[in-house]
Request: fold
Amino acid sequence: MKMNTIELPPPVPDESESLRQYRKLLEKREAEAAKAARSLPDSLPLVLEIGCGHGHFLTSVAEKDPSRYYVGIDVAQGRIQRARRKTTLRDIPNLEFHLADARLFLSFLKPKQCSQIFVLFPDPFPKEKQKKHRLMQGEFLQTCHRILNTDGYLFFRTDVFDYFQEVLAWMEQNRDLFEPVSSEIWPAAETTVFENRAQKVHSQVFRRK
Ligand SMILES: C[S@@+](CC[C@H](N)C(=O)[O-])C[C@H]1O[C@@H](n2cnc3c(N)ncnc32)[C@H](O)[C@@H]1O
Reply:
Protein backbone atom coordinates (compact mmCIF):
# COMPACT_ATOMS: atom_id res chain seq x y z
CA MET A 1 0.00 0.00 0.00
CA LYS A 2 1.36 3.43 -0.98
CA MET A 3 1.95 5.74 2.00
CA ASN A 4 1.03 9.42 1.76
CA THR A 5 4.10 11.55 2.34
CA ILE A 6 3.69 14.94 3.85
CA GLU A 7 6.03 17.75 2.78
CA LEU A 8 7.24 19.45 5.90
CA PRO A 9 8.44 23.08 5.77
CA PRO A 10 12.11 23.60 6.55
CA PRO A 11 12.67 23.91 10.29
CA VAL A 12 12.22 27.41 11.63
CA PRO A 13 15.17 28.23 13.87
CA ASP A 14 14.01 28.64 17.42
CA GLU A 15 15.23 31.52 19.53
CA SER A 16 18.12 29.59 20.99
CA GLU A 17 19.33 28.73 17.48
CA SER A 18 19.33 32.40 16.39
CA LEU A 19 21.06 33.33 19.62
CA ARG A 20 23.70 30.68 18.95
CA GLN A 21 24.24 32.06 15.46
CA TYR A 22 24.44 35.60 16.79
CA ARG A 23 27.01 34.56 19.41
CA LYS A 24 29.02 32.79 16.69
CA LEU A 25 29.02 35.96 14.58
CA LEU A 26 30.18 38.02 17.56
CA GLU A 27 32.99 35.54 18.24
CA LYS A 28 34.01 35.68 14.56
CA ARG A 29 34.07 39.51 14.62
CA GLU A 30 36.05 39.47 17.85
CA ALA A 31 38.62 37.05 16.42
CA GLU A 32 38.93 39.17 13.26
CA ALA A 33 39.42 42.37 15.29
CA ALA A 34 42.04 40.70 17.50
CA LYS A 35 43.93 39.36 14.48
CA ALA A 36 43.82 42.70 12.63
CA ALA A 37 44.85 44.74 15.68
CA ARG A 38 47.71 42.42 16.56
CA SER A 39 49.11 42.32 13.06
CA LEU A 40 49.47 46.09 12.57
CA PRO A 41 53.02 47.05 11.61
CA ASP A 42 55.11 48.87 14.18
CA SER A 43 57.65 50.32 11.75
CA LEU A 44 55.65 53.58 11.26
CA PRO A 45 53.72 55.78 13.72
CA LEU A 46 50.14 54.53 13.87
CA VAL A 47 47.16 56.82 13.23
CA LEU A 48 43.57 55.68 13.84
CA GLU A 49 40.29 57.08 12.63
CA ILE A 50 37.34 55.85 14.68
CA GLY A 51 34.03 55.81 12.80
CA CYS A 52 35.73 56.44 9.46
CA GLY A 53 32.55 55.98 7.37
CA HIS A 54 33.42 55.57 3.68
CA GLY A 55 37.03 56.49 4.37
CA HIS A 56 37.16 59.76 2.36
CA PHE A 57 39.15 61.64 4.98
CA LEU A 58 41.67 58.94 5.84
CA THR A 59 42.27 57.94 2.23
CA SER A 60 43.32 61.45 1.22
CA VAL A 61 45.42 61.97 4.33
CA ALA A 62 47.23 58.60 4.04
CA GLU A 63 47.89 59.05 0.35
CA LYS A 64 49.75 62.30 1.03
CA ASP A 65 51.67 61.04 4.05
CA PRO A 66 53.60 57.78 3.60
CA SER A 67 55.52 58.48 6.83
CA ARG A 68 52.64 57.15 8.97
CA TYR A 69 50.45 54.05 8.97
CA TYR A 70 46.70 54.78 8.88
CA VAL A 71 43.88 52.55 10.11
CA GLY A 72 40.17 53.30 9.77
CA ILE A 73 37.57 51.48 11.86
CA ASP A 74 33.82 51.45 11.45
CA VAL A 75 30.93 49.19 12.50
CA ALA A 76 29.03 49.61 9.22
CA GLN A 77 29.89 46.86 6.74
CA GLY A 78 28.84 48.76 3.60
CA ARG A 79 30.95 51.75 4.58
CA ILE A 80 34.05 49.63 5.21
CA GLN A 81 33.58 47.85 1.87
CA ARG A 82 33.50 51.20 0.07
CA ALA A 83 36.50 52.45 2.02
CA ARG A 84 38.51 49.33 1.14
CA ARG A 85 37.70 49.76 -2.53
CA LYS A 86 39.41 53.17 -2.40
CA THR A 87 42.66 51.75 -0.97
CA THR A 88 42.78 49.08 -3.65
CA LEU A 89 41.91 51.39 -6.54
CA ARG A 90 44.41 54.01 -5.46
CA ASP A 91 47.04 51.54 -4.26
CA ILE A 92 47.79 53.08 -0.87
CA PRO A 93 50.08 50.70 1.04
CA ASN A 94 50.05 52.59 4.36
CA LEU A 95 46.27 52.37 4.87
CA GLU A 96 43.84 49.69 5.99
CA PHE A 97 40.19 49.62 7.03
CA HIS A 98 38.56 47.26 9.48
CA LEU A 99 34.99 46.32 10.22
CA ALA A 100 34.77 46.37 14.01
CA ASP A 101 33.30 48.07 16.99
CA ALA A 102 36.05 50.54 17.85
CA ARG A 103 35.79 49.72 21.56
CA LEU A 104 36.54 46.09 20.81
CA PHE A 105 39.32 46.83 18.29
CA LEU A 106 41.07 49.26 20.63
CA SER A 107 41.01 46.73 23.46
CA PHE A 108 43.47 44.59 21.44
CA LEU A 109 46.00 47.39 20.93
CA LYS A 110 49.11 47.67 23.07
CA PRO A 111 49.66 50.56 25.51
CA LYS A 112 51.13 53.61 23.73
CA GLN A 113 50.86 51.96 20.33
CA CYS A 114 49.30 54.98 18.54
CA SER A 115 50.53 58.44 17.80
CA GLN A 116 47.22 60.02 16.75
CA ILE A 117 43.50 59.24 17.00
CA PHE A 118 40.81 61.03 15.00
CA VAL A 119 37.16 60.96 16.07
CA LEU A 120 35.27 63.05 13.53
CA PHE A 121 31.54 63.55 13.79
CA PRO A 122 30.78 60.53 15.98
CA ASP A 123 27.09 59.54 16.08
CA PRO A 124 25.45 62.36 18.07
CA PHE A 125 22.68 60.49 19.98
CA PRO A 126 20.95 63.85 20.52
CA LYS A 127 18.01 62.72 22.70
CA GLU A 128 18.53 62.87 26.45
CA LYS A 129 17.77 59.15 26.85
CA GLN A 130 20.27 58.18 24.13
CA LYS A 131 23.24 60.23 25.29
CA LYS A 132 24.62 57.32 27.31
CA HIS A 133 25.43 55.65 23.96
CA ARG A 134 27.82 58.41 22.85
CA LEU A 135 31.28 57.08 22.09
CA MET A 136 33.40 59.91 23.49
CA GLN A 137 32.82 59.16 27.17
CA GLY A 138 34.79 57.92 30.18
CA GLU A 139 35.75 54.34 29.35
CA PHE A 140 36.48 55.04 25.69
CA LEU A 141 38.52 58.16 26.50
CA GLN A 142 40.53 56.22 29.07
CA THR A 143 41.23 53.61 26.40
CA CYS A 144 42.40 56.39 24.05
CA HIS A 145 44.77 57.49 26.78
CA ARG A 146 46.07 53.94 27.23
CA ILE A 147 46.84 53.36 23.55
CA LEU A 148 48.21 56.83 22.72
CA ASN A 149 51.89 57.45 23.27
CA THR A 150 53.01 60.31 25.51
CA ASP A 151 52.48 63.57 23.60
CA GLY A 152 50.21 61.73 21.16
CA TYR A 153 47.11 63.57 19.94
CA LEU A 154 43.38 62.99 20.02
CA PHE A 155 41.57 65.03 17.35
CA PHE A 156 37.86 65.55 17.98
CA ARG A 157 35.35 67.31 15.77
CA THR A 158 31.55 67.45 15.98
CA ASP A 159 28.65 69.65 14.94
CA VAL A 160 26.74 68.93 18.16
CA PHE A 161 27.58 71.65 20.64
CA ASP A 162 26.41 69.88 23.78
CA TYR A 163 28.42 66.75 22.83
CA PHE A 164 31.44 69.01 22.39
CA GLN A 165 30.86 70.59 25.81
CA GLU A 166 30.40 67.17 27.40
CA VAL A 167 33.84 66.06 26.13
CA LEU A 168 35.49 69.32 27.23
CA ALA A 169 33.98 68.84 30.71
CA TRP A 170 35.31 65.26 30.93
CA MET A 171 38.75 66.46 29.87
CA GLU A 172 38.64 69.24 32.46
CA GLN A 173 37.96 66.62 35.14
CA ASN A 174 40.76 64.41 33.83
CA ARG A 175 43.53 66.93 33.39
CA ASP A 176 46.06 64.34 34.51
CA LEU A 177 45.32 62.36 31.30
CA PHE A 178 44.93 64.97 28.55
CA GLU A 179 45.40 68.67 27.97
CA PRO A 180 43.64 70.74 25.31
CA VAL A 181 46.03 72.30 22.82
CA SER A 182 45.62 74.75 19.97
CA SER A 183 43.60 73.45 17.03
CA GLU A 184 46.16 75.10 14.77
CA ILE A 185 48.08 71.84 14.81
CA TRP A 186 45.16 70.07 13.08
CA PRO A 187 47.23 68.21 10.50
CA ALA A 188 44.88 67.95 7.53
CA ALA A 189 42.68 70.32 5.60
CA GLU A 190 40.58 67.43 4.24
CA THR A 191 36.95 67.45 5.32
CA THR A 192 34.72 64.45 6.01
CA VAL A 193 31.33 63.64 4.47
CA PHE A 194 29.48 64.72 7.61
CA GLU A 195 31.59 67.84 7.90
CA ASN A 196 30.50 68.91 4.43
CA ARG A 197 26.86 68.73 5.59
CA ALA A 198 27.41 70.43 8.95
CA GLN A 199 26.32 74.01 9.59
CA LYS A 200 28.87 74.71 12.31
CA VAL A 201 31.76 72.59 13.55
CA HIS A 202 33.46 72.44 16.94
CA SER A 203 37.01 71.09 17.05
CA GLN A 204 39.47 70.41 19.79
CA VAL A 205 42.85 68.73 19.88
CA PHE A 206 43.93 67.00 23.10
CA ARG A 207 47.50 66.09 23.93
CA ARG A 208 48.03 62.90 25.89
CA LYS A 209 50.07 63.48 29.04
C1 LIG B 1 28.04 60.31 11.83
S1 LIG B 1 29.03 59.13 11.03
C2 LIG B 1 30.52 60.05 10.67
C3 LIG B 1 31.36 59.40 9.62
C4 LIG B 1 32.66 60.18 9.26
N1 LIG B 1 33.55 60.27 10.39
C5 LIG B 1 32.33 61.56 8.74
O1 LIG B 1 32.58 62.54 9.46
O2 LIG B 1 31.82 61.66 7.60
C6 LIG B 1 29.56 58.13 12.41
C7 LIG B 1 30.24 56.85 11.98
O3 LIG B 1 30.69 56.16 13.15
C8 LIG B 1 30.43 54.77 12.99
N2 LIG B 1 30.38 54.19 14.34
C9 LIG B 1 29.43 54.39 15.28
N3 LIG B 1 29.73 53.71 16.41
C10 LIG B 1 30.91 53.08 16.17
C11 LIG B 1 31.73 52.20 16.94
N4 LIG B 1 31.41 51.84 18.19
N5 LIG B 1 32.86 51.73 16.38
C12 LIG B 1 33.20 52.07 15.11
N6 LIG B 1 32.45 52.88 14.34
C13 LIG B 1 31.33 53.38 14.86
C14 LIG B 1 29.13 54.73 12.21
O4 LIG B 1 28.95 53.50 11.55
C15 LIG B 1 29.34 55.88 11.23
O5 LIG B 1 29.97 55.48 10.04
In short: The mean pLDDT is 92.
